[in-house]
């Protein structure tokens, strides 16, 4: 760990101006993330245009605050209204919403906030320790290796999420197709522009993220939930008793040990580790009672600490390899690219001051998250009392303004609503959104790396597998894709005793 660079990052992040940016980011991120149906990724995508007027350092410091605020806001919605903003927040709703219905919503929110703090603190510490080391090794990674990693990211996000693999790969295909729009990076040939000059530069990732998340969700709610009324649940004063603290401190410490390793490897988001944390805590603390009836605080503390530590682990992959494996990381990668910065092995060398200021601001954002949101939990609960038609009308307006601010072209609004309609149809047929976002982000880069590798090998396909690292990654991808089929075959095959009984019969 380069302690001097980290201290320089804190010196930048702790200036009054940057502290104000971080605080504004935390408040805005929480305020948007706490709205029903909006997860951290949508909150970050909606607020991304807000940072465009700032310099890169100030923008990413505010972005770090928005990131952590959106994460906590998604948990608040999940606990109070049983409306998870993303798949990783589903586990928190299992016990957290039961606690809220039994008048313990304040304790659940407090456990979530402190869990975020502990999970983020451990995860960011490991990020500081491991990211420069991984970046040092990643400098020697070539085009075939990068393409192999991107194929692994495609396979992982398409197979882990969604109700079926076919739907996951269909979503990925939609994203890859959108990513093809514009000029070919190597030949300069226009592709899928339909003769429209405004599409020559491609479709901005922010438009895709806001369209699929915000506009698609708004259209879905307008079509299906406009006649439903959910009664908001009062939160009250956030506090935890000594018994709550005794039950929660161990899950707070165990969560990061489960979450960070899953986040650091490019094979998906926080869904698997949060479910694993929930299972572990349920098995270890079943004697405490409350599971499945009144709600167990361990079922909130453990998964919340796991979720944020997994997000910190995801930052390792995103910063050192340029591979986003979650929706939030994909939007953050888009923010880097908006400023002409490409995350990867050389990021810590070329943009050292920016990266360490970003990491330091994440530590600052964790503290601000805890200080600001514990006493303001009742305020966020009042936001949930806004009538749903006004709420989603505001979201649609905000999304439109943000999309227009990206390029300042009316065609951007048309593209936004077309992509929003695609997002609506994806929800209609059960297609997960994340593979499409990953396809838009990584599709052009994967194509570029593949063509570079083939050029080096004079068109020989073995140029894609000419390194031990690439072969190892492809083996992992093959195992990931074939494991469900293999496990299904094992379950269906008769046991030796059954075969013997059949022979005797």
From TrEMBL:
Membrane-spanning parts: 20-48, 60-81, 108-134, 169-186, 206-223, 316-336, 356-377, 389-407, 413-442, 463-486
Origin superkingdom: Bacteria
Keyword Transmembrane helix: yes
Keywords noted in UniProt: Membrane, Transmembrane, Transmembrane helix
Residue stretches making up the DUF112 domain: 19-438
Keyword hit for Transmembrane helix: yes
Classification via Pfam families: TctA (PF01970)
Chain segments annotated as coiled-coil in the UniProt record: none
PANTHER family in the cross-refs: TRICARBOXYLIC TRANSPORT PROTEIN
Protein name: Tricarboxylic transport membrane protein
Lineage, highest ranks first: Bacteria, Bacillati, Actinomycetota, Actinomycetes, Pseudonocardiales
């Amino acid at each position: 760990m380069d302690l001097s660079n980290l201290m320089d990052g804190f010196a930048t992040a702790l200036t009054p101006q940057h502290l104000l940016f971080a605080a504004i980011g935390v408040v805005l991120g929480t305020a948007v993330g706490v709205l029903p149906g909006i997860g951290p990724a949508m909150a970050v995508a909606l607020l991304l245009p807000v940072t465009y007027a700032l310099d890169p350092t100030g923008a990413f410091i505010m972005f770090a605050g928005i990131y952590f605020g959106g994460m906590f806001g998604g948990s608040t919605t999940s606990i109070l209204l049983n409306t998870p903003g993303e798949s990783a927040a589903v586990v928190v709703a299992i016990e957290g919403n039961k606690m809220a219905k039994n008048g313990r919503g304040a304790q659940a929110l407090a456990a979530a906030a402190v869990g975020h703090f502990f999970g983020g603190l451990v995860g960011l510490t490991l990020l500081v320790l491991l990211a420069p080391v991984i970046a040092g090794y990643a400098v020697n990674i070539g085009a075939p290796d990068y393409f192999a990693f991107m194929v692994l990211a495609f396979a992982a996000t398409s197979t882990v999420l969604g109700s079926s693999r076919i739907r996951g790969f269909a979503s990925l295909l939609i994203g890859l197709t959108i990513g093809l729009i514009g000029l070919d990076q190597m030949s300069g040939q226009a592709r899928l522009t339909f003769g429209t000059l405004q599409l020559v530069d491609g479709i901005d990732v922010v438009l895709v993220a806001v369209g699929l998340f915000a506009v698609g969700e708004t259209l879905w709610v307008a079509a299906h939930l406009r006649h439903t009324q959910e009664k908001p649940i009062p939160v009250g004063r956030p506090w935890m008793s000594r018994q709550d603290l005794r039950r929660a401190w161990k899950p707070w410490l165990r969560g990061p040990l489960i979450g960070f390793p899953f986040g650091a490897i490019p094979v998906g988001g926080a869904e698997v580790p949060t479910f694993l944390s929930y299972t572990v805590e349920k098995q270890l603390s079943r004697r405490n009672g409350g599971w499945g009836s009144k709600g167990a605080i361990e079922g909130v503390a453990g998964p919340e600490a796991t979720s944020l530590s997994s997000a910190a682990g995801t930052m390792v992959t995103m910063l050192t390899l340029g591979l986003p494996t979650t929706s939030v990381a994909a939007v953050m990668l888009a923010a880097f690219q908006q400023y002409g910065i490409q995350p990867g092995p050389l990021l810590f060398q070329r943009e050292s001051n920016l990266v360490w200021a970003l990491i330091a601001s994440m530590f600052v954002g964790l503290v601000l998250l805890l200080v600001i949101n514990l006493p303001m939990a009742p305020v966020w609960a009042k936001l949930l009392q806004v009538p749903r038609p006004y709420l989603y009308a505001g979201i649609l307006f905000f999304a439109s303004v943000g999309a227009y601010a990206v390029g300042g072209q009316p065609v951007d609004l048309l593209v936004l609503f077309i992509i929003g309609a695609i997002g609506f149809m994806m929800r209609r047929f059960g297609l997960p959104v994340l593979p499409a976002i990953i396809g838009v982000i990584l599709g052009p880069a994967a194509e570029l790396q593949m063509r570079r590798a083939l050029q080096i090998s004079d068109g020989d396909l073995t140029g894609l597998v000419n390194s031990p690292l690439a072969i190892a990654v492809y083996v992992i991808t093959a195992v990931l894709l074939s494991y469900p089929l293999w496990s299904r075959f094992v379950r269906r095959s008769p046991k030796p005793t059954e075969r013997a009984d059949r022979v005797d019969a």
